[in-house]
Amino acid sequence: MVKDANDCTTNGDYVALTFEENPIAGFEFETEDATGVVEFTNNSENANNYLWNFGNGIGTSTDENPIYTYLEGGSYYVTLMASSENCSNDIIRIISVDDIISTTTLKFGSIEVYPNTSNGIFTIVADKEYELIIVDITGKTILNKMITDSENEIDISNNVSGIYFAILRTGNKLTTFKIIKE
Question: What is the pLDDT of residue 51?
């Protein structure tokens, strides 16, 4: 005799059990020479949510197959956490990014940000509407606005020189990148 979650019993000859396969995180990557651009291909199994940490202290994404631009060459520990409704699994891989030949345009998939470094006036070219949140190095929000699927001028020129983090959010997907104000 078998009891279910509702304390009901059955006298059947067999009981059918269904098991969910646990996620298995995995990814490949391809780098573009001297640009800092890395294209990540997610080959995780049994997962439907993803959280990437690009290992440089600033870059994260919830995209399934993100494209990320590093600002400096070097070795980075990239983490992918793949999860399903009840379980998660992560993988950490070391990637090497060539020394970068200076560029003033950052590319994140179909999003472009330029110039970077600037006097505080940046242009963001987006493929759809995003919520843009810019925070300073302490985490204080200095700008929160919606941007459209076109060229958007962002002005933080009244703020002190330094490093800022721009977060683009659409639905439950986030893209984070560093911008530098001279």
Answer: 96
